Amino acid sequence: MNRFTLALLTVIVGASVAAAEPVKDTATASFTRTKKLKGKLTLDAKNEPIGDTLKEISSQLEDQKLGALSVTFDVGVSKNTKTTFSCKELPADEALDGLLKTLDLGYVVISKDKDRYDGWLKLMKGTSRGYETGAEPKGEPTTEPKPVVKTEPKPPVKPEPKPVPIEDKATEQEEKAAAARLTTAKELLEKGKDTEAKPLLKYLVKYCANTKAAVEAKELLGKMN
C-alpha cells in the first residue's frame, strides 16, 4: 500500500469517527430537555389557540421554579391553531406529545451556543419529539465508564433560565388589550380598591409578559408588596 492510499484511508476513517460522535447539548438546551420538560402539568384546554395553551404551560413551569418555556413557530405553523387537550400531573414532555399528536405537529429543543434561541422549543410540522427526525441519540456509548469518585453531596447547579417570553413581540391588538386592563387597574388603585386591582396586574404580568403594560404592572405590584 503506497503512502497516498494510506493517507487517504486515514482521512476517511477520521471523518467517519467524527461524524459518528453525537452532538452535545448546550447547558441551556440540556436544562430544557432534562429538567424543564420533566415538570408536571395539569391542563384543560378546550378548543383554545395553541399559543394560549403554551403560555399556560410556561406559567406552570415558572411556578415550579423551572423558568419560562420559550417557543418559536416554524413556517406554516400558526399559534392560533385550535386544540383540545387535558391532563393531570403529567410530565411536560408527555403532555406536549399528547397535545401535538392530534395536530400532526412536533418540536425540537434548539441547541445553539450563544444563540438567542438556545434552549427554546421550535414547533414544526411532523413527528419530531425533542430532536430532528433521524437525529435522535443512538443508544448508549460503548466506551468504558470512568471510575466514580465519592464526594460530599452538593446541591445541583442549575443554569440560569432565560426570562424570554414565548413571543418576540406583542401584536398591536395584544398591546391594546393589555393597555385597557392596565387602565382599569390604575383606576381601581386610585379609588383605593387594591384588592380588586391586584388580580388584573398579576394577569398582565403572567399572561401578557411581552407587552409594555406588563412592565408597568410589575412595577405597580412591587409597590403594593
Report what the structure shows.
The relative contact order is 0.12. The chain is globular. Strands 2-5-4-6 form a four-stranded mixed beta sheet. It has a two-stranded antiparallel ribbon with strand order 1-3. The termini are far apart. Mean pLDDT is 80; it is low at 15-22 and 140-144. It contains seven helices and six strands. The protein has helices at residues 3-20, 27-34, 50-63, 92-101, 172-190, 194-207, 212-224, and strands at residues 40-49, 71-73, 82-91, 105-109, 121-125, 129-130. Among the domains are: 27-130, Phage tail protein beta-alpha-beta fold (3-Layer(bab) Sandwich); 172-224. It is an alpha/beta fold and 225 residues long.
Tell me, rounded to a whole number, the average pLDDT: 80
Largest beta-sheet characterization: 4 strands, mixed
CATH architecture of the domain at 27-130: 3-Layer(bab) Sandwich
Strand sequence of the main sheet, in spatial order? Answer: 2-5-4-6
CATH third-tier fold name of the domain at 27-130: Phage tail protein beta-alpha-beta fold
Radius of gyration: 23 Å
**Could you tell me the number of beta strands?**
6
